Amino acid sequence: MSIYQQLLERERANQPIKVGVIGAGQMGFGMIAQISTIPGMSVTGISDINIEAAQRAADYYNNQAVIKEQILVSNDYRKVIQSSNVEVIVDATGVPEVGANISLETLRSKKHLVLLNVEVDITIGSLMYQLFKNAGLVYTGSAGDEPAATVELFEFAKTMGMEVLVAGKGKNNKLRKNANPDSAKEEAKRKKMAAHMLAAFQDGTKTMAEMNLLSNAIGFVPDVVGMHGISGDLNSVVRDLNLKKNGGILNKFGVVEYVDGLAPGVFVIVKGQNEGVTHELNYLMKTIDREHQILYRPYHLASLETPITIAKAVLQNEGSIQPLGGPISDTVTVAKRDIKAGERLDGIGGYSVRGVLETHQDMKQNAHIPIGLISGNVVAKKDIKQGEFLTTDDVELDITTTVWKLRALQDNLFPTASVQEIKLESVTV
User: Fold this and answer.
1) C-alpha–C-alpha distance, residues 36 and 110, integer Å
2) What helix, strand, coil percent values describe the chain, rounded to 5?
3) Which region, left, alpha or beta, applies to residue 387 given φ > 0 means left and ψ of -120 to 50 means alpha?
4) Helix (H, G, I), strand (E, B) or coil at 18
5) Which positions ≥6 away from 3 have C-beta within 8 Å?
6) Residue 5, class by beta-carbon neighbours within 10 Å (0-12 exposed, 13-18 middle, 19+ buried)?
7) pLDDT tens digit string along 300-319?
């Protein structure tokens, strides 16, 4: 039975899935608005540090919904998670430390967790997925976010037996490595976004984090640190994302990548597993004869698709995107500007640092710092130049934060580089 049919059954039985939402910003509000008209699903709790934002979302929901709800509104996320009238939690905060605390409280309360918080997932996702799984609960990223949308294409191709060579997304914003909340302020206001959130998109951190999440879910790695980030269209990308010996730019296949020019879509580049399939692909795709084809989804609906993952978690005990095991890649910290010894660093989307994707193995070897750990009271121990990768010698991390403690536990549970342990889908055609 399809998810939609299962939701209709819930509707007819007057037993809707009861959703608690933490974070009523752009993403959270959009999802709440979407759920207001979905059969068999209700929002019964909303939390935000800005209580007015939470109440505004609750009022909008009840203005749109046929069946009105007594929605618990609070600036204390624990009250929503602990509510007996909530069975699944959505983290729409985008803040690693907040997400770490939400994850623990949701686990303690024995409820499923759906993440619109890529930032926490790439930092402690391997650990939390294992803990939730052991408890018989679902811990998952969200449908509609680029990583999960790409996984759908990846699994679609793999189910047909095809070789997947490259998996990735289009970048929605021009890369501005030094973007900060001040430079993003006006555009953020027009787009009704938080300025720090837009800055995280513009400086590349969000793209790196999304491809990090994809890497951890399918075992592919960045071809080079930070990926190539080429510009292109559907035809040029197939040509350029090929091995160097074939006239492309790649050192290997089995990689994640982003492309300027394909936004807001996601893609996988595939190769038919034999001549018969390759011939049929060329015929069906209406292209010139070529070895590789691009499967492209021209949109991702972000938080509007999150209810699909909510339903999968509750009705089928399944997720949309989850780590294979230990980390495959990490989004590590790079200075956006010159930083002086003694300065306190702000985190993702701020003024001090941005994220760059590299393999987990390289992160460990170079003593680089996952950007999700730039949380709490993090202080520079020495001068750091703009563009330098931060190491554990450069800054004093805040070991009192929940996210630091959980990452330390994850490092102990997954001590070896997972990329060595997992059979990657790397080919050298």
Assistant:
1) 25
2) 40, 20, 40
3) left
4) strand
5) 308, 311, 312, 315, 316
6) exposed
7) 999 999 999 999 999 999 99
Residues 148, 141 contacting (CB under 8 angstroms): yes
> Which H/E stretch holds residue 42?
strand 41-47
Determine how β-strand 88-91 pairs with β-strand 17-22. Answer: parallel
Give the count of alpha carbons within 13 A of 67, CB side only: 14
Q: Model pTM?
A: 0.95
Alpha carbon 407 to its chain's center: 17
Q: What is the mean pLDDT of each run of 10 residues along the chain (429 residues)?
A: 97 97 96 97 98 98 96 98 98 97 98 98 98 98 97 98 97 88 93 89 96 98 98 96 98 97 96 92 88 96 97 98 97 98 96 98 97 98 98 97 98 71 39
Please give the Cα distance from 172 to 180 (Å, whole number). Answer: 17
Do the beta carbons of residue 107 and residue 124 sit within 8 Å? no
Q: Cα–Cα–Cα angle for 209, 398, 94, nearest 5°?
A: 30
What's the sign of the alpha-carbon dihedral 39, 104, 193, 85? positive
Query: Cis link prior to 307 (omega < 30° from 0)?
Result: no
Residue pLDDT, tens place only, 21-37 = 999 999 999 999 999 99
Q: How many residues does the chain have?
A: 429
For tokens 């996702």, the residue is 125
Burial 34-71 (b: 16+ CB within 10 A, else e): bbbebebbbbbbbbbeeeebbbbbbeebeeebeeebeb
How confident is the model at residue 415, as a pLDDT? Answer: 85
Amino acid at 109: S
